[in-house]
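## tool: complex_structure
## caller: assistant
## args:
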Amino acid sequence: MLDHADGFDWIPTAADDALLADRYDLVDANVTIDDSLANVDWENGLTATSSGQRLRKVVTTSATRITGFHFVATSLAAQTIFRFLDSGTVQGSLRLTADGRIAAYSGDAATLLGQSDAGAIVINTVYWIECKYLVSSDADVGFIVVGIDDVAVVSVRAVTQIAGATINQVELVADSNVIFDDWVNKNILGSTHNDFGGEAYVELTQVSDELEYGGYEGGSEAAFEWVNSAGNSLNNNIYVDEVPTSAPDDDTSYVHDSGSPGDIDTYRASLAMLEGTLSITIPLSAVSVLYRARLEAPGSENFAPHEFQPSTGNRVSGDAIADFIAVDSDSYAYYEAIHVTDADGAAWDVENYETSEFGQESA
Amino acid sequence: MTIRITALNPQLVYEAGSTLTDPEAVPTPLPTGTCCEFAGPGIGDSSPVITVTTGGSAATDVTIWAEGCECGYTDIYGEYCDVTEGGVYPNASITDTEYRIADLPANSMLVIDAVEEKVTLTDDEGMVQTGGVEALEWAGIFEWIRAAKGGCQRVCVDVGSGSADVEILVYDREW
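## result:
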């Protein structure tokens, strides 16, 4: 199951890097965004202004997890770049070395399990690094596999358990000489997106200003059941269609649920990428919908991610897509719902993405 | 409790597909010997074909032996029990029927075919060594095969350290 994907393009500029704290569970002070348009895939990437800067995400608990990210080093030095953790204790880690290796360890660089050849990482070159880690105290069961550009450079069974028997946190470790992008994280639960996926791109889009697609008249308009910040339910799409090339407008324009369970808002999505000019030819694999939301008063409340395909009339909601989303703060934060198929249960492609609507249902 | 949503941005996740795979599973270790009863109508009427396959790690002290062997039995190769005429070896009469195959490297396969009286070792590079009855390096195995064929009830395989998959098939002897 794909449970986290981030291309970092939802953060407008390096100056807006404080927004990372609205989405991540631990953000060291000097983590920042590289928006120089000179990195990775010519969009935002993650970097830092000093060494050892962590960006940590709590993920679904699983003994086996897969992570992948684009990686660029502008100079070579010995440094940790990634960690799998169990409630704060490092189970396994990846390090860059001064001679251009990627080295795999159990623990926080505690026991070397394997490493690539020297020179595998050349400065100012973009690589896709993917790593699968199975936590076990049995040397015949636990393993780590590290791939660079889909070539295995480490593949070994070993004792991989330092703390508990699972992983529930992942973290990138940034420094001023490294840039990360297109970070995806998976567990082995579910029937799809549960293994190595190969090179990935995570590209941000926005809600379209159009209400209808083709002949599917009324598809969007009929779904406006939340109330917008103007006090009506007309054209709700324009209240959530923020283009994150500037800071979010938060309480300036928004929609809120009417207080009636089952109220649905869905919006057409645009295919246009908001950042960059990359021409992507590999398959569309999933849609990760990123919500910026808050409670209007302290407490806790759920909403269900919702997806609608007007051409067939099919809808899916709630845990048929992902878990219900619990909003537990009256400050804005980001919440993610990953759709691995369209509302008809079909694999994604450009066509069914363009005709789909994404939104939410009040619980 | 009212939820306010100010922005919704789909992220498109593209994936190229991967050829990476998990490391090869380590075969389940054999805690004590794996044994198989001879299925023939009488002692000495069956012959085993034993296959020992290692995975990602080597297996050491791989040993085969026969149990419940009857002495005084003579087959076309002659007499092979030379201890107590007419007696029966104690169960697990390893002293006289054990043969230590040696260590098997990772990703190798050893086939001891007592039916065809042929031994084949495919090593981790896919090279195949085949020995007939006269092959000097496997002479000990063939002595063992003859003994086992000569009148034993069970054949067993054990891996001292490391691990391997063991398969024992028993064929009725065709006289």
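## assistant note: Residues 350-355 of chain A form the longest helix (6 residues). Residues 214-222 of chain A have pLDDT under 50 and may be disordered. Handing back to user.
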